[in-house]
Write a structure and sequence with these properties.
single chain; 157 residues; alpha+beta; 2 domains; four-stranded antiparallel beta sheet; 3 helices; 4 strands; 54% helix; rod-shaped; DUF4446; DUF4446 domain-containing protein; membrane
Length: 157
């Protein structure tokens, strides 16, 4: 029986040495991971990553706000322009279609319609505000055509 107890003691001693070697090896590997090559520790690396993620999230929020503001500005800008040329005095005059009506409208149908009446002696220019594709001022047939043309351009987008 003594022989078998000695064998067990040797086996347990050998196993203890192997396990001690594994523990030392794992300790060195863990030390490398935590300290790194440059001497910074894992905690500072994680803090740096957290700061970078926070910076990226802040940049995303600022970008979303900027794009939202930009979209609102674009919606209020002139998005449809239509010009109708005509001969203000009709007939077979030599002036041709020198008069015009031009509508400049945003996405909501707000904007302005400019009209120019050409005659040999002078040129008159008029501007009328447009809200939701209509005006509180009386519009000529050509001005209505220009507004309708701009409106159809908006619908085709």
């Amino acid at each position: 029986m003594a022989f078998s107890t000695d064998i067990i003691i040797y086996i347990l001693s050998g196993s203890s040495l192997v396990l001690a070697g594994v523990v030392i090896y794992l300790h060195q590997r863990l030390k490398k991971i935590l300290c790194g090559k440059s001497g910074s520790d894992l905690e500072s690396s994680l803090n740096t990553l957290i700061e970078r993620v926070s910076d990226i999230e802040e940049f995303r929020r600022e970008s979303e706000k900027y794009l939202s503001d930009l979209e609102q500005r674009v919606r209020r800008s002139s998005q449809a322009v239509e010009t109708v040329r005509f001969n203000a005095f009709g007939g077979g005059g030599n002036g041709g279609n020198q008069s015009f009506a031009t509508a400049l409208l945003d996405e909501y149908g707000n904007g302005v319609v400019f009209s120019s009446i050409y005659s040999r002696e002078r040129v008159s220019v008029f501007a009328k505000p447009i809200k939701k594709f209509t005006s509180e001022y009386e519009l000529s047939e050509e001005e209505n055509q220009a507004i309708a043309g701009a409106q159809s351009r908006l619908k085709s987008k």
